[in-house]
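Lay summary. Proteins are chains of building blocks that fold into shapes, and those shapes determine what they do. In this project we predict the shape from the chain. Here is one chain we studied, written as its sequence of building blocks.
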Amino acid sequence: MTALLEQVGEMIGKMNRSEKAQVLQWVVSDLGDAFPGIESRPDVCGGDPCVVRTRIPVWTLVQARHLGVTESDLLKAYPALNAEDLAEAWAYYRTHRADIEAQISVNEQA
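And here is the predicted shape, written in a compact code that computers can read:
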């Protein structure tokens, strides 16, 4: 455990139940938009959200799905992906629909 985590543990030990609940709400709120299978890095695909371990942008998968490509076909076309990756991509899309649609639009014009 890092020194910072040890300090946090000590601080939590000194809190009452109400304070702990508030901290928990802050942590949950901070993590609420987290998608562990999706990452955005400026040095990968121009910062577009991609499936981790790959350079496959979420917008590419969503666009393929819009065009009628099945999940089975996506998994065959992208052997680095698994079903969990696709589930993460679809969940990310549901939460960030406008951003992904904008990325699809930009890439259709390119």
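What the prediction tells us: The domain at 38-109 is CATH 1.10.10.10 (Arc Repressor Mutant, subunit A).
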